[in-house]
Amino acid sequence: MSKLVVVGTVAFDKIETPFGKTDKILGGAGTYIGLAAKKFGVDTAIVSVIGGDFPEEYINIFKERDINIDGLKMVEDGKTFFWSGKYHNDMNSRDTLDTQLNVLADFEPIVPAAYKDSKIVMLGNLHPLVQLSVIEQMDDPELVVLDTMNFWMDNALEDLKKVIAKVDVITINDEEARQLSGEYSLVKAAREIEKMGPKYVVIKKGEHGALLFHNNEMFFAPALPLEEVFDPTGAGDTFAGGFVGYIAKTEDTSFKNMKNAIIYGSNLASFCVEKFGTERMLNLTDQEIDERLKTFKELTQFKISLD
Amino acid sequence: MSKLVVVGTVAFDKIETPFGKTDKILGGAGTYIGLAAKKFGVDTAIVSVIGGDFPEEYINIFKERDINIDGLKMVEDGKTFFWSGKYHNDMNSRDTLDTQLNVLADFEPIVPAAYKDSKIVMLGNLHPLVQLSVIEQMDDPELVVLDTMNFWMDNALEDLKKVIAKVDVITINDEEARQLSGEYSLVKAAREIEKMGPKYVVIKKGEHGALLFHNNEMFFAPALPLEEVFDPTGAGDTFAGGFVGYIAKTEDTSFKNMKNAIIYGSNLASFCVEKFGTERMLNLTDQEIDERLKTFKELTQFKISLD
Known about the structure:
The structure is a homodimer. The first copy, chain A, has helices at 29-38, 56-64, 128-137, 150-155, 157-164, 174-181, 186-195, 235-250, 255-272, 279-283, 286-300; strands at residues 4-7, 11-17, 20-21, 25-27, 44-51, 72-75, 82-87, 94-100, 120-123, 143-147, 169-173, 200-204, 210-214, 217-221. Chain A is built from eleven helices and 14 strands. By secondary structure, chain A is an alpha/beta fold. Chain A is globular. In chain A, the strands form two sheets. Chain A has a nine-stranded mixed β-sheet with strand order 6-5-1-9-10-11-12-13-14, sandwiched between helices. In chain A, strands 2, 3, 4, 7 and 8 form a five-stranded mixed β-sheet that branches. The interface between A and B is large, with 36 and 36 residues.
């Protein structure tokens, strides 16, 4: 079992979907990634920043699950990062209603000394220079995974390219892959992005699943078709957390094992969307994950023998 | 090996894509379905209608492949059905530039006597009453598969519901499934459509693959991610032709075997889009199909053993 360092926001989210709305609840990429990775029993540290308004109750969520928060800095006189969004009826698009960076504006990540030798690093969506700083603090990681967004392509492309050049895996959605590469075909887009540095490219297509590319190899995992998507918030981060968590647990960074990691990422993400925020992830049992793996097998596995 | 009856248009298409444009070329749902099904060596009859303008050269395409055309009626003084369309840059949407029904307007399908005992029937997209007439001419088919479009939902919904009530499998795209069922979730949509008659519902999502539903079972086949989609015309019909062709060849209408049929449908459709019109299907070899099956396995199959 490898140790895992996760950098990403720990935040307040206020969410509105056709099914209802929440008050300020626990959210953030670092939160979702950490909770998902911890499902594999991996020794996980979250590096992030919160304000004095962050409740003890949320801190205990990490503590109770034995997620290391030595790198979770509290700025007593600051306020926690806040995001508010409203999903459209199709759940595939959303409007950001409010973003308050607060303590995130001056965030300088510090990787705890005991985790500098972690073999797996997950860089959640943040300013590319913050992501870069985490890489530079690590001793000799085996696998660095980067998640990012179109916002940084629009506003910090040169910094983003610097960090992309230093990672092994990038996870990105289909539109972002097209924007970054200038190619419409996702096969061509992945090839262009591989030229920028990452040996592995994961393209997330939301309800249409996820693709993994490496040289001339390709793997695809569908999203589980659900009766109801209740709240998509955090699904992409939960996918990434499942992906790195499984790799850290198995200590196997081969393409073949990454296929399994992609399946586990999809598996966990399919739970995440069943309830608001982190609610479903907090109650999720190992048995439920195993049961859903069977569902994924039934959904995708077939037996054809050629004559 | 079961005999297969296919009803569907045999047509002229004029196609424009970002890669170029064609003159009037061979097209039509019946053509694509028949060519795909014949790849499995199935004894296949196409029931359709053409005008006196339909060239010998195209008729020979069917004859050379031993596709029965006793039910392909030629109206000497009529003109063949014509469709012209232009694809947008993303290849996912298209504008119809021209539709000339011509001889299709008065089409009354006649199933050849030697094929009335066929066990498998594929009803390509046509007026629901034409599709119904074919069902009524059959002795005792084991599996009737229906393809349809939103056009008939808008213009002949009651007739469409009559034929839907009589079929075993319906193939339909995602937007059409939502329109027909009034449900946004495809899981719920499939359940509603099953209540209308079909025991199996296939939802085609274009570049995002296809889903097969039956009671509480689900199966998903991705579309093969391609460097270039050259011309999507006929992909859905080729998918359907591969699906019924494989079932007719294997004489197995179980859900388990339908999974394989869905994979073969996706396999053939991935070739169809590589060239304009039927060009790629006409040159496709068995070896290429087998090779691509391996690609589909690599794309989707994984091995996870639980501790």
